[in-house]
Amino acid sequence: MSSFSFGTTTGGSTSTTSPFGSAFGATNPAVTSSGTAFGSAFGATNPAVTNSGTGFNFGTSQQAKPACGFGTSTGNTSGTFFIGSGFGRKPTSGFGTQTTDGSQQLQLQQAAVVQPDPSLALHLAICTPSVFNNENDEVLRKWNQLQAFWGAGKGYYAPNMPPVEFTPENPYCRFKVVCYARIPNYRNENGIVQIIIGKPPSEVKPHKQQIVSTLTPMFGGAEVVVDEIFAAEVPDKTNIRLYVQQTLPNGEKQRAAAADVSRYMMGPINTQTLKNLCIQDVIPLLMLTETQLKEYLDTPQRGIDPALWEQGKRENPDPKKYFPVVKVGFQELQKQFKYQEEHAKNLQASMNNIMDEITQLRHKQILVKAAIQNAKWKQANLTRRVLKLVSAQEVERKRGVPLDQTEEQIRMRLEDLYMQLMQPTQYRGCLNELMAQMSVKPGNSRSGPRYGLVGDKEKEVAQYVAWQHDALQAVVGVLKEDIQTVDNMMEEIQRKS
Predict the structure, then answer these.
(1) Orientation of helix 455-496 relative to helix 329-398, angle to 10°
(2) What value, to the nearest 5°, has the Cα angle with vertex 221 and ends 215 and 225?
């Protein structure tokens, strides 16, 4: 298999040369890079560092730019959001009672006891708390159950034991629902990677070109194409989907594999560049394997009840296209609702564009139909003129020339037909008789004998009248189409005006 190499080597380094012959960047001395399907390793590394290649060889990395090239970097910060449960602080010394030195020593000994398993602690908090050892424990039990149901707060279950943190992921939380998401169909050769930037979209979108300009030298001059920019699920963060490609000598575009691009961007030589751009993570978008999907479906997600998870799998509208996901809490439901609203708006905008295009195509279709009908009329007129000219030319050409055998046969046939029409018992005689009978019949007389035709002659006359009726129907149909075309044209003109 031919390799896909971009780099050249100098001073004792080895390289894999591609038959395509393009080179992006160079490696430092004493650097050894081994190539795979696409050639040598990404970019240049520090001296004496061995880097195994996986795909595109993207030149050397550039110097660090100012922090977050499109804003001010204040460093990584993290915050914790929680809801108090009424027991906001752990009581000291038996919930406020005065203790002696001996009791303090006993408390320290009890604190040294190994904490129970989290699932056991959760069970004790909502089933059998024993803090007061009286009827107050029943009130505490109901309070812990309520906190567990809404998924926030702290539950106390025993003296000198740390409280249980109730989160939406606990199995007793009621604010959970199973939704369905489309199974990703990204392939590694598509080269789509998603980078997460710790800035809101309003700050990232204006600097799209700056981000591309900063990433391009990282890949040795290969083209970086941003496919999509949208808000991340986490507030004040942005997702960018992009791919890296290069132009081959034959003019075709070839993309780098998504896994290779992600692995190279997350390498240590690019750490400073990612930090300058506030890039927090790089994720290759790949298709789930059957094993991964099966493992995901066999494991209930985020503390959801296994029965509900099984029900969600059974009610999947299309298991080949969708897989169940769990939404916990009102915030995630609100996010899902916003995503659906945004998606619906995008679909509506697409439908409006399609409707506009359909309207334009209908207008063009009407114009084309009118042009085709006009061309048919012109063709019919030209056909008649050509036939008339050809007949006149043929008559002039045959003037003074005796008839040949074929023409003689046609002449004899025409004379025979003429004689049949002129016979008294044939069509002409019947028409003359009919005309005579109509001439002697009073015009204002509605009574009197009715005159008819012979049976076979009546059928022939009816057939002739039927032909005339069909011809009139065809003319009426053409007139109706023309009227409809004119009406449509008038509507389009009025709408545009």
Answers:
(1) 130
(2) 55
3-class DSSP state of 34:
strand
Q: Which H or E run contains 344?
A: helix 329-398
- How do residues 75-92 score in pLDDT, each as one tens digit? 333 332 222 333 333 333
**Token couple for 289:** 């394997």
Q: Are 336 and 179 in contact (CB under 8 A)?
A: yes
Q: What are phi and psi of 401, to 5 degrees?
A: -105, 130
Which SS3 state, helix, strand or coil, does residue 169 take? coil
Cα–Cα distance for residue pair 352/180, rounded to 1 Å: 27
Q: Cα–Cα distance between 234 and 236 in angstroms, integer?
A: 7
Alpha carbon distance 388, 394 (integer Å): 10
Neighbours of 135 (CB within 10 A): 8
Tell me the per-residue pLDDT of 111-145, one tens digit each, with 9 for 90 and over. Answer: 444 556 778 888 888 899 999 999 999 999 999 99
Would you give the DSSP letter of residue 248? -
Stated as kind and residue range, the H or E segment containing 24 is: none
Phi–psi pair at 192, nearest 5 degrees: -80, 125
- pTM value surpassing 0.85: no
Between CA 436 and CA 452 the distance in angstroms is 13
Q: What is the largest CA-CA distance in the chain?
A: 149
Residue with tokens 């479906």: 297
pLDDT tens-digit series, residues 376-416: 999 999 999 998 898 888 888 878 888 788 888 888 888 88
Distance CA 173, CA 167 (A): 8
User: Strand 193-197 vs strand 223-231: parallel, antiparallel, or unpaired?
Assistant: unpaired
Query: Nearest-CA neighbor of 362 among 188, 473, 489?
Result: 489
Question: Parallel, antiparallel, or unpaired: how do β-strands 51-52 and 33-34 relate?
Answer: parallel
